[in-house]
Amino acid sequence: MSPWIWGIVMLVAIYAAKWGADQMVEPLKKVRRQWGITQVAGASLLAILTASPEVGISTVSAIRNSGDIGLGTLLGSNIIAIPLIMTVAYAASRKKFGGKGKDEDQKELERKHQEHLREHLLSLSKRAATVLALPYVVIIAIVALLTMPPGWRGLQPVDGWIMLGVFFLFLGQALWRGRKEGEDVKWSKKQIKLAALGAVALIAGAYFTVTAAENVISAIGISQIIGGIFITGTLSTAPEVFKTWKIVGSGQTTAGSTSVIGDKAITLSLGLVPLALVTTPINDFQLFWINLVFVTLMPVAFSLMVLKNKHSGLKLWNVLLLDALLLLYIFIILKWVLNLF
């Protein structure tokens, strides 16, 4: 089959995974309200869904013995996502306020929106750094400890069980530190059925994404890990881009942009579990450690800028700095790893 046809199959499969995740968003919001979880902590819960395409791709690649595609997808999406999402969020926050209604919550959102327009700021809660970004950096450090020392290099089953525990610790601390009084919510059979159908679409989308990616990568003649980084890793961030534009445009800047941090923490912890359980070697150690360095730089830079800014959030130059780190990463990969120029 032509690589162009496989490319179309991959795009359709990623859209199917996105649609599947979308069907579970509203039920998850109801769970957040019922449990009394705040906006920042709720971002980590929402991240379970936005991370699910990458976790699904990782799982299917492990089953199909194409671990490098899954590993490349996890690393690539974790590097690309933060600068891309913050850029989209900043652009969306420049729009006219998109919230509807005249209740107190909407008035407060509009007031904050006008304030960060005056300050040329993407307004974010500092808790986004302490609850999401800094624990994410700890997860990256654990990944490095488990995979980089010569005697432990690669992913073994024991690493999978450790990362599964890390995932539950991250999610637990995020939810516990953001609790408030819960609300009564009503559930409909239609929502439950759509959520179940969404789970099926998510699994099918992940399977065909990996299958199509294998064929496209083979036709192009690049390694699976590079294909995972630049093809599936990039495309898997598309659902987050659309969600960010919509939610930030409604005035919910923290909820709309910082779920990407929780997304990447979950991607890197839970996403490595299936690859570890089938034992995935690191075939290109130079490429791996360079990626891990930039995976670390993104949340560290984000945290420092959010915590140090007088007005909580990111200025335009902060967003451009994150973009510059991404461009530097691409330059290093193309020049010193792939030797393309």
Task: Describe the structure using short key phrases.
mainly alpha; 2% strand; globular; 341 residues; A middle domain of Talin 1
Question: Can you describe this structure in just a few lines?
Answer:
With 341 residues, the chain is mainly α. It is 78% helix and 2% strand. It has one domain: NCX, central ion-binding region (A middle domain of Talin 1, Up-down Bundle), CATH 1.20.1420.
Q: What value does the average pLDDT take?
A: 82
CATH superfamily: NCX, central ion-binding region
Number of strands: 2
User: Shape, please?
Assistant: globular
- Structural domain tally: 1
Low-confidence regions: none
CATH topology: A middle domain of Talin 1
Helix content: over 70%
Major sheet: arrangement of strands: 1-2
Please work out how many helical segments DSSP would assign: 15
Q: What CATH first level would be assigned?
A: Mainly Alpha
Main sheet characteristics: 2 strands, antiparallel
What amount of the residues lies in strands? Answer: under 5%
- Please provide the ordered H/E string of secondary-structure elements: HHHHHHEHHHHHHHHEH
Distance between the termini: 31 Å
